[in-house]
Design goal:
By secondary structure, the protein is mainly α. It has one domain. The protein contains 7 helices and no strands. Helix 1 runs antiparallel to helix 3, helix 1 packs across helix 7 and helix 4 packs antiparallel against helix 5. The radius of gyration is 20 Å and the shape is elongated.
């Protein structure tokens, strides 16, 4: 039987899934849009310094996403623990690793800002060298995401499987989640081994199906909640 704490946690998990997606989209497609110029460290540095507040807001936006992930981890564990405590715990730990790597991503952003600052000790290094180092730090934040992607996708795979097994959500939705999440995990691992893999399969396709599943799951949990396993269908 589904208890009240599970239903409350399900709504919180649904909200966290949707809110987290919105935070990431806002940060990537508004706050940092146009600031990072591929192959041009000098222009990237000028953009960041000219829009430093926006860049800092982007970093804080990513920290907000980390807090959202912690909330999601706790809520999903409460929901899925009765189905399989071991798998629910494994999913929680995998998603926690992903959250920690996102913290590393934020640290890279602030490291780049430090290199572009005016601290006296930076005067010993040529400005173009500092700009190149700052761009390398920003590249490190990009790498942190793709190192975390397999953990994120595997956590989602386990969660989707537990939703499928429990019957808490429609089988079609949970089944799509298993496939989309497994696809994301495979793409992430292949990309780390073969960095030109995104020339064969667009990196937009690595996690887009996974993102669509998590949005759909979040909306379902907020609007419909958990279905009682084995409940008889409503009479016509």
């Amino acid at each position: 039987m589904i208890d009240k704490s599970q239903r409350t946690a399900a709504w919180i998990a649904g909200f966290a899934l949707v809110f987290g997606f919105a935070v990431v989209v806002f940060g990537e497609f508004y706050l940092v849009a146009g600031l990072l110029v591929p192959g041009d460290a000098a222009q990237t540095a000028r953009n960041i310094l000219d829009h430093e507040t926006r860049f800092r807001a982007y970093a804080v936006c990513n920290l907000l996403y980390v807090l959202d992930l912690v909330t999601l981890i706790s809520a999903l564990y409460v929901v899925l623990k009765p189905v399989s405590q071991g798998l629910a715990l494994a999913a929680a730990f995998l998603r926690l690793i992903y959250a920690l790597l996102w913290v590393a991503l934020v640290m890279d952003l602030f490291s780049a800002l430090t290199l572009l600052g005016d601290a006296p000790y930076l005067h010993a290094v040529a400005p173009d060298a500092l700009q190149a180092l700052a761009r390398a730090e920003l590249r490190g934040s990009f790498d942190a995401y793709y190192v975390g992607l397999p953990f994120f996708a595997l956590a989602s795979t386990l969660s989707a499987w537990l939703f499928w097994k429990s019957g808490y959500v429609p089988k079609v939705l949970a089944g799509f989640g298993v496939l989309a999440s497994a696809w994301g995990a495979a793409c992430g691992i292949i990309y780390l081994v073969f960095p030109h893999f995104n020339q064969t399969v667009s990196d937009w396709l690595f996690d887009t199906p996974l993102g669509l599943f998590e949005i759909a799951l979040g909306l379902w949990l907020m609007s419909k909640g958990l279905r009682q396993p084995g409940a008889a269908p409503a009479p016509r």
